[in-house]
Amino acid sequence: MDVISFATMYSLGGKVHVTIHLNSSFYSTVKIHETVEIEGRLTGTKGNIKAVMVKIRREGNREVIARGSLWMAPLALGLKDLTPLHKSSL
Description:
Layout: H1 2-13, E1 17-26, E2 36-46, E3 49-58, E4 64-74, H2 79-82
Antiparallel strand pairs: 1-4, 2-3, 3-4
């Protein structure tokens, strides 16, 4: 669900977001090679934080197999954040 929500947010704005809260519920199981539908959608916004809902459904009867609610925030990394804290003396 985390990967689907990431893809949903990236497709909406092209910015990288990280999950800050995840709530998932599993209602049923699937068999190996069974086809499922996966849907991710933006459900709300509060400042920079976005809410995403992910649903996984059985393809034939559209029964909901799993559902996830995620809160996501933009990843704010710059080049200065990627430099090591301590430089090697070698």
